[in-house]
């Protein structure tokens, strides 16, 4: 297992805010293992934080009166979805500058913690995405949109705030009453490696 390409100094990650959000996995051959922001189509980098951008030169994201920043929500039922079967649900760590809003947060820095994928994502894609991003990728027998709409808030909170990635599979099984296949996060990679770097 190789180390992350670049170890970033993220002193405030232990205080990261954890929220739900969606990504889209690419359809084209070169993009099948890349996470994209569903709305902007921005690819998320591997083994380094996603950093928010804004067209305004007057502030750095997230702006107080500007909608810029990397989004996450507390309640999965408030997430917006496209009709794409390539959208995935997951928990993201937000840190740096974080602005709290009504539904959740906007932040300057983010990295995925784990992903929940539907039948539209192949086992091969799950395996490669898990290895590349260093996060656990769980398979659902339904669309992640359906899970997001029906996940009870206590179960969603338990999943969102799970401190040990190994607990996610158990919590997911409890929430869905079904044991889902999982590609576990590779050791010594992903966001947890930053905490001890
Ligand atoms: Zn802005």
List the helices and strands and how they pair.
Blueprint (H helix, E strand, L loop, with lengths): L16 E9 L9 E2 L13 E2 L18 E4 L13 E14 L3 E14 L5 H11 L2 E4 L4 H7 L2 H8 L4 H12 L5 E2 L7 H6 L1
Parallel strand pairs: 6-7
Antiparallel strand pairs: 1-2, 1-5, 3-6, 4-6, 5-6, 7-8
Helix pairs in contact: 3-4
Bound molecules: zinc ion (ZN).
The site of zinc ion has 7 residues, from loops.
N-to-C terminal Cα separation, in Å? 16 Å
Which H/E pattern describes the elements? EEEEEEHEHHHEH
Strand content: 25-35%
- Helix-strand makeup class: alpha+beta
Share of helical residues: 10-25%
What ligand species are in this complex? zinc ion
Biggest sheet architecture: 8 strands, mixed
Number of strands: 8
The average pLDDT value, as a whole number, equals 86
List the uncertain runs: 1-12, 193-197
Write up what this structure looks like.
This protein is α+β, with helices and mostly antiparallel strands. It has helices spanning 123-133, 144-150, 153-160, 165-176, 191-196, and strands at residues 17-25, 35-36, 50-51, 70-73, 87-100, 104-117, 136-139, 182-183. Strands 1, 2, 3, 4, 5, 6, 7 and 8 form an eight-stranded mixed β-sheet that branches. Helix 3 (153-160) runs antiparallel to helix 4. The longest helix has 12 residues, at 165-176. Bound molecules: zinc ion. The site of zinc ion has 7 residues, from loops.
């Amino acid at each position: 297992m190789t180390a992350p390409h670049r170890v970033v100094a993220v002193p405030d990650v232990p205080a990261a805010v954890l929220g739900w959000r969606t990504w889209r996995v690419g359809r084209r051959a070169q993009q099948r293992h890349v996470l994209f922001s569903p709305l902007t189509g921005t690819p998320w980098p591997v083994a380094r934080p996603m950093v928010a951008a804004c067209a305004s030169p007057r502030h750095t994201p997230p702006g107080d009166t500007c909608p810029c920043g990397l989004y996450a929500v507390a309640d999965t039922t408030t997430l917006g979805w496209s009709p794409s079967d390539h959208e995935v649900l997951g928990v993201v760590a937000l840190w740096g500058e974080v602005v709290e809003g009504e539904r959740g947060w906007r932040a300057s820095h983010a990295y995925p913690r784990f992903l929940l994928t539907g039948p539209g994502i192949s086992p091969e894609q799950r395996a490669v995405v898990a290895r590349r991003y260093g996060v656990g990728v769980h398979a659902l027998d339904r669309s992640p949109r359906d899970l997001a709409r029906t996940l009870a808030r206590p179960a969603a909170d338990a999943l969102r705030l799970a401190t040990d990635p190994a607990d996610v599979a158990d919590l997911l099984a409890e929430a869905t009453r079904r044991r889902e296949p999982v590609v576990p996060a590779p050791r010594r990679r992903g966001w947890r490696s930053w905490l001890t770097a």
